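hey m, so remember when u said the tokens were messed up on ur end? i reran from scratch. heres the input so u can diff it against urs
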Amino acid sequence: MNSLAIDLNDQHFKRVCNLVYQLSGIHLKNGKEALVKTRLMKRLRKLNIGSFDDYINFIESEAGHTELGMMIDVMTTNKTSFFRELAHFDFLSKTILPEMKKNKIRLWSAACSSGQEPYSIAILLREQMPDVDSLDIRILATDISRRMLEEASAGQYVDDKMEGISRELLHKYFSKTKNGPDIEYKISEKVRKMISLASLNLLGNWPMKGPFDVIFCRNVMIYFDRPTQQKLVDRFWNILEPGGYLFVGHSEGLSAVKHKFKYVQAAIYRK
């Protein structure tokens, strides 16, 4: 299949944008045509479909329901790393955890990607709380991408995905599963058992009741338009424990929406 011969015209782009927005809330702006074409070509090749017309007609049909999910999957951005935006983990360690004088603690990684964020949270809890195994602590980790959830569930990462993990933490919480040029590390079961992984569309129904003490939803809302951001922030407020914290990405903030949160510091808010 020659990708150069397959054209993504304006009508195709708009149809894809509408589908992605309706299903995930992601707002693909003009100028993303090349990105959309590159990512969707992977699916056309996989299915041996020869045009975007045929592909879009397929995913809009009842028979294409499963593929529709795969299309959303390839369109989502899944950049992540261990202890990404370290200032947030410092704040969790030095401010939030010392405040928590209770046995039941609930945290939510609301766009967990391939798992580095919730595993980082779990590692931090184990480092800071000697009695962690005797407490009722659960970390909910959700994502819209089933492919990313599969990677998170495996908890196995190649060497270049281990950025952010110190040598000490590497030896303490990971085991080497492959040697040679393709080194891989697997997260320990004592960390893995603290996390519940689940598929979740942030715009859909939330089956969990909460309340949560801490919610991480970082580097997600930048892909949403303002009405979607507003709706999501309101829902986070409702499912947070009074006094609970919301972490967003450093490139986001809540200045574009109305909210009742108290600003704490860059990209950290408190109910």
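this time it looks ok to me. The chain has a mean pLDDT of 91. if urs says something different then somethings off w ur setup not the seq
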